[in-house]
Specification:
This protein is an alpha+beta fold and 431 residues long. The chain has 16 helices and twelve strands. The longest helix has 18 residues.
């Protein structure tokens, strides 16, 4: 990427060859906290060229999603300075930006910020200012084994009914042969099981809060959605589903053990089995919010002493040139490029040739509906864009996992969830 970034510190970066050095003459080092998902792991390899060309050493801290959220939130909120670059998403970026926890991002003209998909740019901004740059973006969709649906004589359609989805799962379910009808998230966490569960609740016409921001977790819609989820996954899912999140299910799917998986569109980049087909997310009468919207993005905490170097790395790692670097990398190729961030990615012929999921992924992202509605009076699809949501979502996640495991009934779990959420929202001063 041929750009030069001059900073107030007198540092210069050119990916064409200059080395970034500190005032004392030593090369800079950046500590980067990343989620342990495939595209982030790949970045460590691709970024070796960045270090070679700039002299900026990269210290990677790769963490499981829940651990990452806890550590990054704690360090960033206190200005700890442990990390120079952090992975965050749409729930955190606008709130943390408004609070002054992370730096605003402005890049050069060659970066082409207008190429960024509007859903991603808007979701990572506050009052028009970008606070995190999307490394990859996603919605959610159905990924299913068409060979198994064909053999079972069932079909899965775009925006199908949940009843038809359950019927398809039942038809494919053959645990004696090591195949489970539906593999779905069960591991507790506001961004783990609750990401999927919230889309189910939305599709049943439910929401986290009413217009007064009071939790509605014992509503008829929540009860119907959670009973459906527990029955579907408990009956047609793999044993121990309460411990499964993205990476665990990806491994199961690639071992041929899942008939269908409803999860992040980005998963399609890492599926290794043949005959995968895709469909837009199902619903139970309400399609608004039935598919989520998320980006794993890169931000610069205000506590770092390496602000300019961190911004320069993010500019490179979320650029068009980075997409080309992955596509042309001997270890990866065009089927492994991070998607869901730039319109131009979907126009690359080499990508189109290998990414049979591209149209379905783009359609899911474009149809995601994070705006507030009469049913859902807050911004966010699978989360609510309020500072208290991670605490609320994490508390409820534990109760839903307990219902899935059979430790509690659905009614017991929702009663406990309502109590926990009420206490958090009341203490926060919402009512």
């Amino acid at each position: 990427m041929n750009f030069i970034k001059n900073t107030a510190l007198g540092l210069a970066l050119s990916v064409a060859g200059a080395t970034v050095v500190a005032a004392d003459g030593h090369a800079k080092e950046l500590t980067i906290a990343i989620v342990n998902n495939g595209h982030m792991i790949n970045m460590q390899k691709v970024a070796e060229a960045y270090t070679e060309e700039t002299g900026v050493a990269l210290n990677w801290v790769s963490l499981e999603e829940g651990v990452l959220r806890e550590q990054v939130t704690s360090d960033t909120a206190t200005g700890g300075g442990q990390y120079d670059i952090i992975n965050i998403g749409m729930q955190e970026a606008p709130i943390w930006g408004a609070a002054g926890w992370i730096e605003p991002l402005e890049f050069g003209a060659e970066y082409d910020v207008d190429d960024m998909l509007p859903a991603m740019r808007n979701g990572l901004s506050h009052e028009g200012t970008l606070y995190a740059a999307p490394f990859y973006g996603e919605s959610s969709m159905v990924m299913y084994r068409k060979d198994l649906t064909d053999a079972a004589g069932v079909t899965i359609a775009d925006n199908d009914s949940w009843d038809n989805i359950k019927a398809a799962a039942a038809a494919m379910h053959n645990p004696d042969a090591g195949v489970y009808g539906a593999c779905l998230r069960g591991k507790p966490g506001w961004g783990d099981n609750m990401a999927f569960v919230t889309t189910v609740v939305n599709s049943f016409g439910g929401a986290w809060f009413d217009k007064d921001m009071r939790p509605t977790l014992q509503s008829d819609e929540w009860k119907a959605a959670i009973n459906f989820y527990v029955d579907l996954l408990g009956t047609y899912g793999p044993p121990g589903s309460e411990g499964n999140s993205f990476n665990e299910i990806l491994a199961l799917y690639n071992e041929g053990k899942c008939g269908m998986w409803i999860d992040a569109t980005i998963a399609a980049s890492f599926l290794e089995v043949d005959g995968v087909a895709y469909a837009q997310s199902p619903n139970a009468g309400n399609p608004v919010g039935a598919n989520w919207l998320w980006a794993w993005a890169m931000a610069v905490p205000t506590g770092t002493e390496n602000t300019e170097e961190a911004k320069a790395f993010i500019e490179w790692a979320t650029s068009k040139e980075y997409i080309q670097a992955v596509g042309n990398h001997p270890d990866f190729g065009w089927g492994s490029v991070p998607t869901g961030t730039r319109a131009s990615t979907y126009e690359i012929a080499e990508f189109q040739a290998v990414a049979d999921f591209a149209a379905a992924e783009k359609a899911a992202i474009d149809s995601a509906a994070p705006e507030a509605t009469d049913i859902k009076p807050y911004v966010g699809v699978q989360f609510a864009a309020i500072p208290e949501f991670p605490e609320v979502g994490s508390a409820v996640a534990q109760e839903i996992a307990a219902a899935l495991s059979g430790a509690k009934s659905v009614d017991e779990a929702l009663e406990a969830a309502q109590g926990a959420a009420d206490a958090i929202m009341s203490e926060a001063g919402y009512y």
